[in-house]
Amino acid sequence: MRAAGLIFSNIHDASIPELTSRRTMASIPFGGRYRLIDFALSNMVNSGITKVGLITHDNYQSLLDHIGNGKDWDLARRNGGIKLLPPFITAYDNATAGKVYTTRLEALMGVMSFINRCSEEVLVLSDCDVICNVDLSLAIEQHIKNNADITLVSAMVDTAEQELDAKAQVPVLDEEGRLTDISVYEGQQGKVEVCSDILIVRRAYLQRVVTEAVARGYTSFYRDIIYRNLGRDRFFVVRYDGFFARVNSIESYFRCSMKLLDRKSRVNLFYRRNQPIFTKVRNSAPTRYLPSAKVTNSLIADGCVIEGTVENSILFRGVHVGKGTVVRNSILMQDTYTGENVTLGCVITDKDVVIKDDRTLCGHETLPFYIGKGMTV
């Protein structure tokens, strides 16, 4: 069965203001060459979805620069492809009477014209704060087999490795995989099953519940749609068992990124069979390692120049590490320049940061030292 996709690019911006002051959550750089939206888009494209609506809010210039016409995801198409959905294109579409949306349900109210024009019987809804590589085609098949109204994709999270916030949704299932209850995370320890905020929805059902939500003034998809209709409508859960991480703070962003230095995690995310993660392709020169360079257990993108020492770190394109400089347990985004004899530990630099000679900057994995875009230290 054909399906269309909807991606929410902005609704979690407030959870990580350091990185979203000049960009959306969807366009946060990750893993040396990717953006967070690459995972949601790739999950859909790998599952045969060729029509994707990208719901935007504001501050999305960086996102547009990255997406372009969608050709890197094979979405530059005459029919379907990727469509930008700014908030409330017309007064008719403005279901919330002038308010800019803040929740998933309010965002859906603003793009009902896109939903109504879709001919696909199934819609896949995805947030941009989760990092995973899930085969949605299997989940869609299960959704159809169960004749479900909504199918939630869940994942197991080990709280010893990843912190969960109070907004995380914890599903309760019966033996058939049907959703019987849903609650917020209450501090449970160990492995906890949570909703990944990837939902497969029958389009006709979505049209009905969103129209009802407008009439009744509902704002929360989980509380006002799913919880209110438990036991009456057909809600199911499909479990995903691969790499899963959620970015909900600067600390979680740092930890998720550092997980990629573990080969098992990296293979589990990027090298799943027939499920590549696509991103914008750039033709850059190879990285230059000068005689004084020493690099261990790090991810280095193209176009870098390394004269110093890099350990357990992630370097994006165009980073320069000066002579005598030591970079440990850090993330240096695109075109960061470090001078000579600099020491960095648990540091995150945004794009175009300049760190002058003889500087020492140090944070901690629970509170990394962040330097904003374009700053000079």
Briefly say what this structure is.
The protein has 377 residues and is an alpha/beta fold.
List the keywords.
single chain, 377 residues, alpha/beta, Spore Coat Polysaccharide Biosynthesis Protein SpsA, Chain A, UDP N-Acetylglucosamine Acyltransferase, domain 1, 2 domains, seven-stranded mixed beta sheet, five-stranded parallel beta sheet, 28 strands, 21% helix
Structure description:
The chain has 377 residues and is of the alpha/beta class. It is built from 10 helices and 28 strands. The chain has helices at 17-20, 37-45, 61-67, 104-110, 112-117, 136-145, 203-216, 221-226, 250-259, 263-270, and strands at residues 3-8, 29-30, 34-35, 51-55, 81-85, 122-127, 130-132, 150-158, 169-173, 179-184, 191-202, 235-240, 244-246, 288-289, 294-296, 299-300, 305-306, 309-311, 314-315, 320-321, 326-328, 331-332, 337-338, 343-345, 347-349, 354-355, 360-362, 369-371. The chain starts with a strand and ends in a 6-residue tail after the last strand. The model is unreliable at 89-98 (pLDDT under 50).
As a whole number of angstroms, the C-alpha radius of gyration is 21 Å
Given as residue ranges, the uncertain stretches (5+ residues, pLDDT < 50) are 89-98
Total count of helical runs of at least 4 residues:
10
Kindly report the CATH topology of the largest domain: Spore Coat Polysaccharide Biosynthesis Protein SpsA, Chain A
User: What percent of residues adopt helix (DSSP H or I)?
Assistant: 10-25%
Structural class: alpha/beta
User: How many E-type strands?
Assistant: 28
CATH architecture of the largest domain: Alpha-Beta Complex
